[in-house]
Amino acid sequence: MSDSKPTSIxxxxxxxxxxxxxxxxxxxxxxxxxxxxxxxxxxxxxxxQRVLEAAAELGLEYTEQVQQAGQSAxxxxxxxxxxxxx
Length: 86
Prior knowledge:
The protein is mainly alpha-helical. 66% of the residues lie in helices and 0% in strands. Helix 1 packs across helix 2. The longest helix is centred in the last third of the chain and has 17 residues.
């Protein structure tokens, strides 16, 4: 995925072992798995930009009330996912 210079990330042995297993099950490497994860998640700034774009496309004014309703919905979704980030 990337031509960047390799680096190291410190983690526990249990996490490393889990990453290795997940990568093996997907037929990939830990490095590729981590790259996929990093590129599949949005930063908060990217999330906010997407929200603003979606509201504009729907013709909605993005008020604090709309933001709170959206956050509440995501909180309920996460609760049903066992606390995993959405």
